[in-house]
Amino acid sequence: MKRYFLIYSTFLLTLVIASCQSTPDQGSTETENDANNKILTEIDANAPVVKLQLDAAGNTMDDMEFVQKELTVKTGSTVHLQFNNLSTDGAMQHNFVLIENGEADKVGSFAMQAGAENEFVPRMPEVLAHTKMLLPEENVLFIFRAPTPGTYMYICTYPGHYSKMQGMFIVTE
Ligand SMILES: [Cu+2]
Questions:
Q1: HSE-up of 135 (CA within 13 Å, CB side)?
Q2: Residue 148 sits in a domain of what CATH number?
Q3: Residue 88 alpha carbon to ligand 1 centre in Å
Q4: Residue 127 Cα, ligand 1 centroid: separation in angstroms?
């Protein structure tokens, strides 16, 4: 009897652990470290922190958008980007992909090829940093280092989204 109780409690404990791990990471912090994120996610603990908010909204291919069309930060600062997917429709998955200026068509056209297993983010030098793909009503705090001064862009690489979902990312001296 005692043995069954032990097995049963172990089973329960496993269930508890499993449910903790599968908790949706709403509001969680993300510092991915795949090839595309490697450099910009190396954070200098002494750098000033800049908090930015970016909302993805809309529920159709026609009205989907980044609400903020332009974001500005100082070079070298640590960006705390609160990225919110406000869309509710199941097909409205969005990510934030920081890319070289003028490369939206190039990066966007490789998104489908990158595939769902890479969350539709192509591995290419034009991609500087990116979040994971957010489900509807999901959000994430994405932390990265602002790159060298210049003009960059951000796009969503979910297939079919990049032509409408673009914004300018300005990095000042
Ligand atoms: Cu999108």
A1: 5
A2: 2.60.40.420
A3: 12
A4: 16
